[in-house]
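User: Some background: our group keeps a shared notebook of sequences we're curious about, and every so often someone picks one and asks for a predicted structure to add to the entry. Today it's my turn. The entry only has the sequence so far, pasted here. Could you supply the structure so I can complete it?
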Amino acid sequence: MIEISRLTYRGNSIFRLSIESLRISSGENVAVTGPSGSGKTTLLRLISGLEIPESGGIRIDGREMNTRQPVPPHQRGISLLSQSLGLWAHMTAAQHIAFARSAGKTLKVNETDRELLNLVRLEKKEDDRPCHLSGGEQQRLALARSLANHPRILLLDEPFSNLDPVLHHELSWILNSMQEKQKFTRVQVSHDIASVRNEADRIVIIGQGKMVQQGTWNDIEKHPADEWVEKLLRIK
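Assistant: Of course. Here's the predicted structure to add to the notebook entry:
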């Protein structure tokens, strides 16, 4: 479980993120949406430990993450898939999986790594480096790498942006199948509410650095918090 309370963060003199209270249950699939610059990516970076809040707390499975000596990212049981993908140019597809699975201890590929590549339909590409993969193949590799070490929590920052509908559907299917198998908690950022409303257990709407509303799609659609949310829901 992720528990956020009275969280404040100031990135610069203009932007500020403030989350009074947010709880995400283990195994839940939560979509975070809102306009660009509202604080969605910053929230993921705070949960993962890549950013440190000014005040407030983040607890993961009952453990406080932001003490005087914050728990470092690699000890949080979290994988973050960023928009940039962050693939390593010198590694083959299979080596990406081995490196992530072993927490950087080896590039030696085992059968478990090959099974994961097979799951994302890259079994014929295991010896290829990123420059020889298509955009869709790079997306699938990045997703597989983020799950290679069986994280408790998977954070996704616009994972399907700029993809054609067919590839979007394919990656969504793969991700849903892997979540069902591995039982991880999933927090997915998307500026496009239409792309997540049918998959997410719950939707969190952020605007101007604050959580405006949260709930199921049906609840939010029936009872929008304000006129701004109502306008956001019309963008389908």
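Suggested note for the entry: Strands lie at 2-10, 16-24, 29-33, 55-60, 63-64, 78-81, 153-157, 185-190, 202-207, 210-215. Helices lie at 40-48, 93-101, 111-119, 135-147, 165-182, 217-222, 227-233.
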